[in-house]
């Protein structure tokens, strides 16, 4: 039994499932003023020294600042999903001296007031929103012929450099796109021809992944804001280079299924396109959420609660309907379970979540990478500042 500012409560976790992160979240959840709960007070309530508290949180690859920041962000958007919480009370909980100050800060991030955001959250219901998203996904136009051919050849294990070049060269638009991507500085020297672009700069497997991204982009360009389409596509194209840079920068040995994880990184956030579709009942809520929520986990939880389907699940839906590799869908479903604490997270999962957070952060146009830099340090990634400067 613990007491926080005069309020007594008991931990909700059994010893078998207990982690210090969960205990810290419990303290914040039971606190009337979570924004004012200091790290010193939190350590004291858990009967730990500050040194031990920090060290044990670092062993769980987090920190008190990260936990509290994420908690307050989730508290903010979750409270606006219903009419039950008063905005004045929410402002105080989040550490603002008055409602007006909170409203200004919220509007600056989200582009709307807390009351307007709540109205967007309450439009329709989960069931109708989910049903509409499935309808949109089922009626997406077919992918291009070259993309279909690449996927067929991949399923039959017939893809090699010569075959990929032959398929891509017959599609003038896709060929130009691949040459354009391969000519960017992050891919090295400018290629002389398509074969060099694929073999040296991009890679056979990556070209197939990019073909699918372009197919999605082309299918949805008239139905999703151009800004969203362009910014998120650019992030997806950065995924393979980010993955390679992170692998090189790790100071610990983590075994990856490189082909699978690259696909997951390229495809995991495709659901943003579906959720932002102009025909979706809550597309305006999605756009405002993308603008204002800078933590991917918070965004994913928020969308799940308000729309009945998360970003990862939306991506899985789109990939399944286009009959993309079942292993990718399976991995996305695993990440969804981990994000809901229904499956145990591995070291690989934590790094995948981190890389997806980097891609989301870049696509959403957020510019303060300090929280991600701190997380990179906890995940034993060296030189994150150089990676950020090169890619973002």
Q: Overview of this structure, please?
A:
The protein contains 23 helices and two strands. By secondary structure, the protein is mainly α. It folds into three domains: about 120 residues, Homeodomain-like (Arc Repressor Mutant, subunit A); about 180 residues, no CATH class; about 70 residues, no CATH class. β1 and β2 form a beta hairpin. The termini are far apart.
- What best-fitting shape do the alpha-carbon axes yield? globular
Q: What is the total domain count?
A: 3
Low-confidence sequence ranges: 1-17
The helix/strand class is: mainly alpha
Residue-averaged pLDDT, rounded?
A: 90
Major β-sheet profile: 2 strands, antiparallel
Supply the number of helical segments: 23
* Element string (H = helix, E = strand): EEHHHHHHHHHHHHHHHHHHHHHHH
- Rg, alpha carbons: 22 Å
Q: How far from one another are the termini?
A: 46 Å
Number of DSSP E strands = 2
Q: Strand sequence of the main sheet, in spatial order?
A: 1-2
- What fraction of residues sit in β-strands? under 5%
Fraction in helix: 55-70%
